[in-house]
Amino acid sequence: MMKTSINILNAIDDNKKISITLTSCPHYLITGGTGSGKTTFSLYLIAKLCLLYKEATVYILDFKGDEHFQRFNNYENYFSYVDCIAGLREVYEEFSERLKTTGSFPPLIIFVDELASMISYFSRSTSEKNEIQRIIAEILMMGRSKSVHIITSTQRPDSSLFSNGARDNYTFKLGLGNLSSEGKNMMFPSTDIEFKKCSLGYGYVSLHSNEPIFVGVPVFSNYEKIYSIIKLHLGGKKD
């Protein structure tokens, strides 16, 4: 796996770039309310990782069928609504196979959008809800060594969404917009800093549970390029 890092956020107070790799930050939790810039950053992050890891395979589990992600709906590795559990099972099968062998693997990146809505729907069936939480927890705990990485986006990162404290295994936690007091405690439980008011595209990030840093999402306008980059990693078009 390449050692080169990518600049992913701007640290506002000291005017520096925040750089990451899948080795340094294998799993990502992104939270924020409607209009906070969560979806925009998610697309940007996925595309930047695809540029760095040319051999990566991407899965997009888009439970709500967001218009920004529906552009991928004719690709093999895009799943929406109730089909998201089938996509997660497909990923888990590959993950399980990797656990049985040694050696290096190309990155497998799973993006789960609106996790809270997905968990809420599948709560109708306790077994399916438990299955989703178990798979996510296993990937968070053991995925790094097998180059399996998860990016999760949700409005509220409640502990009830994750089993057995799995939320603590996200190495990159980004809260965009003005989080509620509860939201701040969920994302950054050990800090007592005074949070600044955040406009669109601004928030706080914590790497490896370190003190949160005030950041801004880089400005970009070429969405078509981002979509084109991601499509190259989605397993090809469906027949």
Can you describe what's shown?
- With 239 residues, this protein is an alpha/beta fold.
- Helices cover 30% and strands 22% of the residues.
- Helix 1 packs across helix 6, helix 2 (84-99) crosses helix 4 (126-142) and helix 3 (115-122) packs antiparallel against helix 4.
- The chain is globular.
- The mean pLDDT is 91.
Q: Could you give the order of strands across the largest sheet?
A: 2-1-10-9-8-3-7-6-4-5
Summarize model confidence as the mean pLDDT: 91
Count of DSSP E strands? 10
Please state roughly what percent of the residues sit in beta strands, choosing from under 5%, 5-15%, 15-25%, 25-35%, 35-45% or over 45%. 15-25%
Return the structural class.
alpha/beta
Overall helicity: 25-40%
List keywords for this structure.
alpha/beta
Question: How do the helices and strands line up, and which of them pair or pack?
Answer:
Elements: E1 6-11, E2 16-20, E3 28-31, H1 38-52, E4 57-62, E5 78-80, H2 84-99, E6 108-113, H3 115-122, H4 126-142, E7 148-154, E8 172-176, H5 181-187, E9 202-207, E10 213-216, H6 223-231
Parallel strand pairs: 3-7, 3-8, 4-5, 4-6, 6-7
Antiparallel strand pairs: 1-2, 1-10, 8-9, 9-10
Helix pairs in contact: 1-6, 2-4, 3-4
